[in-house]
Amino acid sequence: MEINATKQNARRFVDIESPYAGASLGKGSAGVREVLRNIRYTRACMRDSLLRGEIPFASHLVYTQSGILDDNVPQERHLGIMAGKELIEKLNASTVVYTDLGISKGMELGIKMAQESGRSIEYRSLGEGWKNALNSLEDLHSHNRIWIARFINGVDTVITEDKEPLDEPSANVSVKLG
How are strands ordered across the β-sheet holding 94-98? Predict the structure, then answer.
């Protein structure tokens, strides 16, 4: 996709609505796979928005990171949602709803809040090829092997997607994402 960074679009802030938790939340590995799929999808949505010359924000990618807020704790989930929506209101951002994976309850709340505040709402689809396109981009990315860094049992640990050890094999935990 060609980058469309006109002056008018470059100043347009957008609130990205896409699924995060999904229907399988709390249902073991199915829930984890669904959340990982949703995170990858939101990354693709963010890229799509940036390539349109917009300035996107997806609070569910920022506030749900390990060590910030836990989406499974209702009070923390609410805190993250409200912080994100307050920022979006102050920026007078448009709401962009990406629909390829359906509309979750959290997205419904974001749409309702945008309607109540009179902000514009736009619906978009990345199309069926979003996963393959993202896979290609991830393969070429300068940080393509790093999924997440964590402090586990007193050791900085890097969890990678490809099961290849990084610097110190004994200090690395690897997972294969499917």
Answer: 55-57, 13-17, 94-98, 121-124
Q: CA-to-CA distance for 77 and 72, rounded, in angstroms? A: 7
Q: Where are the domains of the chain?
A: 7-143, 145-178
User: Over the stretch 55-101, which tens digit does the pLDDT of each residue have?
Assistant: 999 998 899 887 898 888 889 988 998 899 899 999 999 999 999 99
Judge residue 153's burial from the number of C-beta atoms within 10 Å of its C-beta, 0-12 exposed, 13-18 middle, 19 or more buried. Answer: exposed
Q: Which fold has domain 7-143?
A: Rossmann fold (3.40.50)
Q: Encoding tokens for residue 169?
A: 């094999």
- Specify the pTM: 0.74
CB 81 within 8 A of CB 66: no
Distance from the Cα of residue 132 to its chain's centroid: 17
Q: How far apart are CA 38 and CA 61, in angstroms?
A: 10
DSSP 114-170: HHHHT--EEEE---TTHHHHHHHHHHHSTTTTEEEEEEETTEEEEEESS----S-GG
Distance from first CA to last CA of the chain, Å, rounded? 26
